[in-house]
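User: I'm writing a tutorial on reading structure tokens. Could you give me a worked example: one chain, its sequence, then its tokens, then a sentence or two explaining what the tokens reveal?
Assistant: Sure. Here is the example chain.
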Amino acid sequence: MSTKLGVSHGWDYKRVESLSADQQLLAGDAGKIFMVVQNATSALDIQLPEIATIQPGWKAKFILKTASSKDVVISVADDDGDLMFGMICSADPSGGESADTAVDELTFLASKAAPGDWAEIEFDGDYFYVNGMEHDNDHMTIA
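And here are its predicted structure tokens:
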């Protein structure tokens, strides 16, 4: 038997936006695809919504559009704690995966991540769950 946890209105990945500057995501960003522009000037900090402001079912997808020499960090809000679980798999069969539990950030690594690396993040009412794919080992980390 399943129990309904809630529902979050979203665009079901039909709205696409570019992310090229630091941003605090909000409840209204549910269901969006973010095309992430990594740059050579400064690291990009994307903060997930405060959990008190979103419902179960909030989700977003992040696809690296442009790779460069600074990290892109997607993090849980500072006062929400270590609420991220999941894994990133590598398309390279000799590569390893990045997997962890009870952490607070996902990073597209500087000078390693490649266009097309991606991650989805979903919220169940308590935790953020990450799954994604990278071209080669060590393009992304969950820590």
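What the tokens reveal: The mean pLDDT is 86. The longest strand covers residues 59-66.
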